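Now for today's protein:

——
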Amino acid sequence: MTSTPAAPARTARQEASETPVKRVLLAAPRGYCAGVDRAVIAVEKALDLHGAPVYVRKEIVHNKYVVETLSDRGAIFVDETDEVPEGARVVFSAHGVSPAVVAAAEARSLKTIDATCPLVTKVHKEAVRFADDDYDILLIGHDGHEEVEGTAGEAPDHIQVVNSPDEVDKVTVRDPDKVVWISQTTLSVDETMETVRRLRERFPTLQDPPSDDICYATQNRQVAVKKLAPSCDLVLVVGSKNSSNSVRLVEVALNSGAGASYLVDYAKEIDEAWLDGVTSVGVTSGASVPEILVDEVLAFLAARGYGTVEEVRTATEDLMFSLPRELRSDMKKAGVEVPRPPRGARRALPVEVVG
C-alpha cells in the first residue's frame, strides 16, 4: 500500500497573502459644508464678541456634538423666540425661518443674527417670486423639518409639501398649467427626481426652479457614497438621526450596493458585531459633522485591523460664505477683524475619481 506524500506546510507569507486585507474606503467630500461652517462660526463669533449667553433658535445645525460643544461655551438653544428674554440676542439656525418668526423676534426687540444658509435663502426667494406670480408651488421635502417650515412660511397660501413620490397622486392644484416645484436642500437626489418625474406625468407643464435646489454638498456626498458603496461590506455614516442629509446617505449606500449601512453619532456607537466577516468598510459623514468625529471612527476601525485607508474622491469643494451681515456689522463696530472668504473661493467642481 502506497502512501500519499504529505502536502508541504504553507508558509506564513502564503497564508497572509490569502487573507483578505481589511480596508477603509473614505468618502470625499464628506463633513462640513459651507453653510454649516458659516453657521457654527457665527455662534462662536457671537459668543466671543458678546459673551454668554447667546440664544439660538432650534439646533444651529443638526449634529449632537456641535450642539453640545456650543452649549458648553454658553449658547442656549430654544424652540421658539418667545423663550428668549426680551432684548436679548438670538441666532437663527442654518435651516432658515419663516417671516412669522422674524416678526415675532422683532416684536420682542430681539437682536437677531441670521445664520440661514445662503442656499436655503435662495429657495425662499424662489418661493416668494413664484407666489407673487400666483403659481401653485409644490415643495418637495419632509413635513416638520425646520427648513421646510421656513420655506413654506414664505408663501403659505401657495405652497403644499410633497413628502415622497407616493404622495404625488394626492396633489391638487388650481391651474395645472401654472405649477412649479422647489425642494428642501438636503434630500435624496434620486428620490427627488422620481417625485418630479411623477409630478410631471400629472402636470406636463410643471416648471422647474431656475437652478437646482438640492445643495451642492448634499449631492456631492451622495455621489461619493454611490461610488464606494458597491465595494463595501459595510458603510458607516457619521451623523445625527435628525440630520436629513445624513439619513439620506445611509439610504444611498444601501441602494447602491453596500452590504449594510448604519448611522452613528460617535465611534462608541459602532456595534462590534457589524464588523463580523467584513473586509471593506466605507466611511462618510453628513454635512453638519466635524471631522474630529470621523477621525474617531477611523481610529476605532484601525484598532480592529482596518488600518488601510483609501480615499474615494468625487469632487473638490472650495465654496465659502461670508459671515451673517448682522455679525459682520457688530464685529466692525467692536474693531474686530472680519474674516473674508479667500480670493478664488467658488462653487464645488467635479474632479477625477481616485482611490
Observations:
- Residues 11-17, 347-355 have pLDDT under 50 and may be disordered.
- The radius of gyration is 24 Å.
- The CA atoms of residues 64 and 314 lie 27 Å apart.
- The chain is about 35% helix and 20% strand.
